[in-house]
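Quick one: structure tokens for this chain, please?
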Amino acid sequence: METQTAYAVPGEDGELCVYSSTQDATGAQEAISNMLDVSNNRVTVIVKRLGGGFGGKESSSIWASATAALCAKLLNRPVRVAMDREDDMASTGKRHPNLAQYKVGFTSTGKIVALKMTHFLDAGCDLTDSFVCTMKVISNMDTAYNIPHVDFTGKICKTNQPANCPMRGFGLPEGMFVTEYVMEKVAAYLHLPPHHIRHMSLYKEGDLTPYRQRVRYCTLDRLWDEIMRTSQFEARLKDVAKFNEEHVWRKRGLSIVPVKAAVGYFQSSMNQAGALVHLYKDGTVLLTHGGSAMGQGLPTKPLQIAASIPQIPLESIYTTETSTARVPNTITSAGSFQSDLQGGAVVDACQRLNDRLSPLREQHPLWSFKELAKHAHEQGISLSATGFFKVPDSVGWDFKEDGKEERQVFKYFTYGVGVVEADVDALTGEQHMVRVDLLMDVGR
């Protein structure tokens, strides 16, 4: 995977253009502006694509951009910073080391009725994104389970290590992992199958989360029943037990785990995006938005969304790089939410452009898109449109003092269930994945 890298090119009148491998173009722009004591309009950050991000190129990428920018400013010549793997691994933060303490209350049948849990996150030497990660840990400790009484706490610890950062899942795995561990411990204590304990506590449609958000479009029960059938879970459970009886030094396990993942930012100001669409006289469309492409299909998805607007051919559209000079005040690309945000902005821009062309299209229905663009330009119709999208609901972490108000913290939840069969060599610790079944509800 690509290391932290940036390329800075000085311009005239204090201008600076920085090509950065970052998930947060505006964050890099603001950091460079503050460091050089110049206004944001003198610094342009361009992101073509990342050679992998996964959270490690949000705040952790800014120092590379800032280093290149400072040297370019002082030397008045282009400067490139690209870390080798050893230095990159030593200086860049990792997933937060996590210590959890818990107390759990449950009935004799295995129903979880209370859970008190405290997570201690190792932030390293600086806070950076640790507060956000801690909030995500707390908000996902319930995972897919409706537990009536909870007390979740997150504590951030300062240590003498490099500042840690988000890492694939942004706190979700840490919060979910410990809760799943609790499920296993309860099952072992009661001598019950772990999947029995899990199934009893699954969220149902209309349940409230600990942060008072209503669970909507919940398909956990359906997903659970379907994967239990398609994976032949009960039959394979017997096969696993037989395998373990016949093998002394190699043991096999079979587990089913549900997931409820929150999508969206809990800070309402981050649930917005912008886009810019140009239509040229030859009928081609240039599209740009504020997201960073890092392998999640972001250049392609907005293009497909733009093509879904009537009369805009897919083959005529090209997605160019992200630039703070084209789309200002971008939001960091994280949380598996960029297709929603950037796609919404692209729809708005394309619809505005389409509305301008509609009268001319109605007068000349047989014109091609190229002819339409050419004549629209000749008639003085603007062929450039900006788009903006903000999540319409009152999304955000805004607790009331009484703690009883229902609220919309995240935009929505996604649901899934996985079945994993694996074995381990008791002598060497060697692990082998025998089979994996996954079933996700991805919506429409």
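The longest strand covers residues 250-263.
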